## 1
Amino acid sequence: MDHRLFLAARALVLADLEARQQATAAVVSALEEAVASRRWWAEQWPEGEVYVAGLVAQDVQDAVVDAGGRWPECRICRRGPVHALHIQPDLGGPDPVWVCEESGTAVAELGRLSFPGPGG
């Protein structure tokens, strides 16, 4: 198993966490746990390597929700309640993209969220 796959997934998710100022110690710990978990998962299903980065992002997003937060929040919709972005496709890849859950608008590729601005 190529460990660069997991380092790349970690780097993409960490970049998005930092872009939204969510890279706290607790969230980065959740990221480390997600990477370790997906390493085992990919060892069991090597053909699933293309899904790892998106699945790690989803795992971290779930951990943030479980802790009572929301990440990443949509910043392109100016009206309505605050809502999150989600990784598409649902399985996390290949080529995962953050999509607004309300409008269905693709906001940014995983690892490319920005702050501030419409994509951020």
## 2
Amino acid sequence: MPVSLAGQLVVAISSRALFDFEEENQVFEASDDRAYMRLQLERIDRPAKPGVAFSLVHKLLAFNSPGAPRVEVVILSRNDPVSGLRVFRSCERYGLPIQRGVFTRGASPWRYLKPLNANLFLSANDADVRSALDAGFPAARVLPHAARATDAHPNEVRIAFDGDAVLFSDEAERVFQADGLDGFQRHEAERAASPLPAGPFKPLLEALQRLQREGTEEMRLRTALVTARSAPAHERAIRTLMDWEIEVDEAMFLGGLSKGEFLREFEPDFFFDDQTGHVEGAAPHVPAGHVAAGVANPA
């Protein structure tokens, strides 16, 4: 029987999202890939420092148990195969059971998301993320300078999502940009009972809910909706999740307040938002990624 990842949560991640390769990346940008390859090979026995998405990956992999694979993490990287040696060596040193990887030496790797049937793609490369989103895969550009996750919740994966243009479509955001706050509130109040169309991250939230229901003694999952919506526009968001039969553990309707300090208290392993301002505001507090989707992110 051929090996299959069917039924598993599949996370594809670049080496710069998983590990802190920013010093090495400066060599690549200042010189060429051969200088980068030499440096990575020289450091092959030096484990790379954890990157922005390290905590998320480490905890998700803890959902696996003998005979019950629930999460698969695959390295999907513009790195060359030689530099990939250090990536796998670093995974081994940190006890990350990552066995699969695709290294494309500068070429965009996003097309390999399809045979992986990936539920999430995390990368530091904006073009790769946009291509993945255009192809229908949940994807986010990690901010390498973002804060690392805390150690406060070692047995709980915590993930926070923005609503419009992330979990939901950008329908309401388009109304807000065209008609302002009053028009937006009126539009959403009138349609409170009508579910919003799905956004790019609905499939990921569905997959996470399945993982949450399976649960293990070693690891749990906690999700949060963190949105600039406020009453009365909150109702449509909640009713949409109810219509999808998806539950979130926390919901923050902030009415334009800065999200960063609220996220600092929630302490997520990762936060997804489509607005660069919100992502940059969150980055000093928590691991954050930009979802380049919707009207706020023209091509």
## 3
Amino acid sequence: MRPTDGSFHSYEWTPEVIERKVGETVTGFTKASKIYQITLTIRGKLEDRKALIDDITDAFEHDVINVSPGRIYFGDWYIDCFIKDKTTGISGTWNNWTELQIGIYCPYPSWITECKRSFQKIINGSGESEEFLDYEHDYGYDYTMPYGGDVIWQVDHYAPCEYEMIIYGPCVDPRVVINGHIYQVYATLDENDYLKINSRENSVVQYLVNGTQRDLYDYRVKITGSLFDPIKPGNVRVVWSGEFGFDLTLFCERSEPRWKIQGS
């Protein structure tokens, strides 16, 4: 089975305007949900084609009934979606091929690629760096970062990114400063606990080692704005105490997937 007709490379922004005596003033743009029409062609023995059609119909229906989207990938990019309609027929090329016309409904009409980076714990319990260069014959300074982390992370994108941050315990009231914006939650994480912040879902959840979860939405710190403010790409400056490690994922969004795989 392979796609033989249709395209994911189309989109439309709708301008928001104020009518003027002459023309309009644009105040912004919106983008509605998207439906892609794709043709899938199946080749093989008739019984094999029938079995495959049954299997994929079960998968499509499962997502719809459970209101749980599937995901389509195009190179480095993906989009969440439902298959809202399907028509099955004989191929116009060969009568031993089957064609499926499917409608792919994407409620959130943006393609996403994820930029991820891990920031390691660098300060131990005594307040000293765990990893640095300190030679036997002393120099005027040590090759160390004794007071925490200060990293510049280059992210190649053009729009602010939603994010997910996973902070690993043990730590107390973990705080990360990104581009001068404070991201912090009042929480105590024990060994093997972790905290997950997701800006797209407006969620802050602590996962305890015993398998339970705690909703910490009301414990978020609001000093320089919202905990869920997107992160501006480019040269992203990340500063933290170094007393804990964390993973940061930026969700870079685009109206259509890139033709060229990033880095190629």
## 4
Amino acid sequence: MDAYFDIRGGRMVRSEAFETLDPSEKAIASFYLGMAMAKAYAAQVLGIPWLMHISRYEAAWAVKYGASTKRPDLFGCNAAGDWAVAEAKGRDRVTGALVAKMRAQKSSVASINGAAPTHRYGAATRFPEGRLALRVVDPPPRGDAQEVPIDPTAWLLDYYAPIVDLIAEGDRQVEGRYLVGYIPTSDIEVGVSEEVVGWVNESRDRQFERPGPRRADTPADGMETFRRLAGQARPADAQLVERITEPTGDDGNIPNLFRDGIVIRSRR
């Protein structure tokens, strides 16, 4: 991101280094930008801060898919129990074929933990006139979508554990309520609250069920559409989920960028 994109006149543009990349390298850079913009859109526009890769869910939770192999890139939630399913793309042009593909992929999830997703959207980044723009589409769900039952406590653990591990690998320091770590070979610092760090380290050995998606037998419209995330957890974990998902606010010089309690900042 630092090498291939710049900010000019308050807008993101591609750097000169980007234009000299090989086409496959451009595709990789565009992929990461597309993911970042899908995350930013979910957090800032939809109020969905906890967003995770379906592929990571697939690896860690032993996902098995039904007849349809199409699936979105990301899914996530907020403390109110609103779920989002997102397909992210990074392209030079947003064509009708690309929009159709996003609609098919992000509509493949009918429900998450028994609740119909509040938002199903596809997000495509592009650069008309050389400046970053985002196109978002949000069509209705498909009839052959799948159901994703999860344990919210385990899901939050999987969300935060890689960040805690990343901080533990480098130099770190305490700032207020945050543990901030410097990422080696970069100028980036990442921080998360000490409470989350402690909870992740204490919870690693817990046994959680990760059943994975299954074909949905009930139409999405007939499912529950509102239940706080803590209410979707087992009763023994409800207070824990409520505490972890409470808004953290600002802590001195630590900005709460995406309302998931994770801080990302440059040392420059």
